[in-house]
């Protein structure tokens, strides 16, 4: 039974051999049989075979997503394409721009996308426009429906307001937000002095920070998390007192690149763009890699997987939806990603793959923390969560307007 979603928040201390497929070489874990196979289900196998055949006849699957997902998930898409004989067309550009395009096309009676992997804000825009198909009737894979084995958590987690269009697939223990600094500009003593997020509001950091505005669709999850953990007062003071250099919510690269050049000393909420620069040896470092700040960590169920309504390739879309959440699909995603900061799958029966050691160790603590009652569970579909989401964007948009920003 598909239950309502949860949003997990933890305030606690921190805790090549390949398989040849279609001429390509994949990690050995991809395509590996279940270690504990479920009972034989002839009806499922017949339906799966029939759906696979129909999907091959359609021959194509069109996926819309943000730019980073498009780059990082190419290996998974290629694996799916070769396994099922279906061409995967993965969009480029930001999730916001792709959502704008899909909605504009629909206004003209066209439907060109099958699967949506855009962020929560863009997903909500698609939901409001009636552009998403209910997922419950499309999912029939026993590995996906049965959460009693092979999953870190026993429930099906939704990430949309109606609890019917968008499913989560990852579980991440993380900081409330990441703080990066230029090692040539911020002294070690200054870095060590930041023990709480509220320390960023000290006068000596005024005018030395940059980050994303977080009022757009691409900043929805981070903005709501900050609002729920640090509160309205923190957001107000950060934006009104500290003279931050701000960029649109979907622009991660400019703050990170400016940090590496020494244009500013600290950046906030730009981990995905800053981490590759650190790997290149540039003078940037994550303060939040070295310590857990006073306010602790959060653990979230993440992911916004949706099927678009009136998909031009409905069988391929349904096949991909079931495969994506299966053990094989999540193994492919976790082992073939190029994301240096990938989140662990909600599935517990997949290998570590490209997940960083500290992330992999963290996710294994979920059950222990739950047993110790050190996890506060909030319903992502609850009025409380979406009230925080709505209040935060209203407040932040007002602040940005008063500061003269057009985004």
Describe it.
This protein is α/β, with parallel strands linked by helices and 407 residues long. The chain folds into two domains: 18-173 and 300-376, D-Maltodextrin-Binding Protein, domain 2 (3-Layer(aba) Sandwich), CATH 3.40.190.10; 177-295 and 389-402, Periplasmic binding protein-like II (D-Maltodextrin-Binding Protein, domain 2, 3-Layer(aba) Sandwich). It contains 17 helices and 16 strands. The chain has helices at 42-58, 67-72, 74-84, 95-107, 120-128, 142-145, 188-193, 220-229, 231-241, 253-261, 271-279, 287-290, 314-325, 327-336, 357-363, 366-371, 383-402, and strands at 7-9, 18-21, 24-27, 60-64, 87-90, 115-116, 132-133, 170-175, 179-182, 209-212, 245-247, 266-268, 284-286, 297-302, 306-308, 376-378. The strands form five sheets. The protein has a five-stranded mixed sheet. It has a five-stranded mixed sheet with strand order 11-10-12-9-13. Helix 9 packs parallel to helix 17. The relative contact order is 0.20.
Can I get a quick summary?
The chain is of the alpha/beta class and 407 residues long. The protein has helices at residues 42-58, 67-72, 74-84, 95-107, 120-128, 142-145, 188-193, 220-229, 231-241, 253-261, 271-279, 287-290, 314-325, 327-336, 357-363, 366-371, 383-402; strands spanning 7-9, 18-21, 24-27, 60-64, 87-90, 115-116, 132-133, 170-175, 179-182, 209-212, 245-247, 266-268, 284-286, 297-302, 306-308, 376-378.
Query: Could you say what the CATH topology of the largest domain is called?
Result: D-Maltodextrin-Binding Protein, domain 2
- State the total count of DSSP E strands: 16
Anisotropy-based shape:
globular
- The portion of residues assigned to helices is 40-55%
Name the CATH class of the largest domain. Answer: Alpha Beta
| Structural category | alpha/beta
The major sheet is characterized as: 5 strands, mixed
The assigned CATH architecture of the largest domain is 3-Layer(aba) Sandwich
Mean pLDDT: 88
CATH homologous superfamily annotation of the largest domain? Periplasmic binding protein-like II
- Proportion of residues in extended strands: 5-15%
Whole-number tally of structural domains:
2
